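2 proteins. here.
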Amino acid sequence: EALCVSTPVALGTPALSEARSEAVARHRQATERLAAADGPLARARRASAPAGEIIGQWDLPDDFAAVGAGFGNTYGRATEAFGRCLDERSAGAFHELRKRVKYHRYQLELLSSIGGGLIEPWADRLHDLTDLLGDDHDLWELVAVVRSDPDAFGGEEALDAIEVLAAGRSAQLRRSALALGSRLTAEDPDALVARLEKWWSAARRYGNATGPTRLADLGGGTS
């Protein structure tokens, strides 16, 4: 759908119209399977429910050391993944960057209460980055699906057109992702951890945002 929106002229091609209809039908079927009462999402919710009680019983340190090292490691992996994207420019490298940036964003959002309003827009930009990377990944997943059964999507004509359109759109998305990612991964991991530790101390000492004292108190950030 997003590919059609980005290149609306493509909808005038009969083969691509057929491909779009097939893709929409498969998406609807997959969504229904996921949302079913006995589907994978419901099973995952049931399986993870006891984790909340277990986490609430953890006895954790009440200072920044409880989160600082893990935060730095996760951010460091994101910066390394960004470097691989610059070197390789492969679909696998960009997909790995998306995963690493998501982990980093989730951890950053847990610290939103120490930022005095500074962390939320930062996390929003990280979300923007993962959206760009997710759209790029989805493009190549679509191409792979069409390649596996081209006749269902309008034949070789549709496959050729989709590959050309996907390559063009992917180039745009990756340029935007690299531009944004270069800023969001610019800081050295040790420097970033040191900065957030100062924010933690400032929140504890001066207020303005309530500094959490236990991991169980973290949260309240963006979604």
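next one coming up
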Amino acid sequence: MTKVGVADRVALGGAKASHVRMAPYIDKRFAIGKVDGALGLDFFQGYVVHASWSTGTFYLKPRGDAAATVTARMGRWGAAVPACAHPGCVTASLATTPGGVRLDIVRDPEAAHHALEVRIGVTPAPGKSAPALVVELPANVDKISGGVSEAYDGAKVMVLDVSPFTRPCVGDTGCVFQFASASASSGS
């Protein structure tokens, strides 16, 4: 493999994933003959992964409904993410306007001055495909509002996860990234 691509389906034993990004293996720490390859986080996204370092074994269990485990995922941060009225300390909504589809993300007051990275699950309207979103809210940004593609028209959004660790955005106004593949609120 010489360049990045997307595999429609990848299987490893009984584990399967769709739309997996593939990249050339460039890690020079190991002799190339001893490494068959590496799978990234997008392959394992649909699984809970447990590693047994003593046996060199990884155990995979399919994740359940992402919406059903929101509270547990968000609770893992403890005091780093405050308790708020809404999951992830934000409200997320889509609105169809004369100018197109608009995404609005509004921070809860309890999370003022906290940097947040929020994963938004998307359930597209029937017959459409719309990728999940990641919203970066720097500590000084309380609201992001802007246009998204027509693929989000009629979709439902739900906060699935939050992290106190944000990625950098161009400027200080926050930003929204699309996941590479379309996914529903189940997080698949």
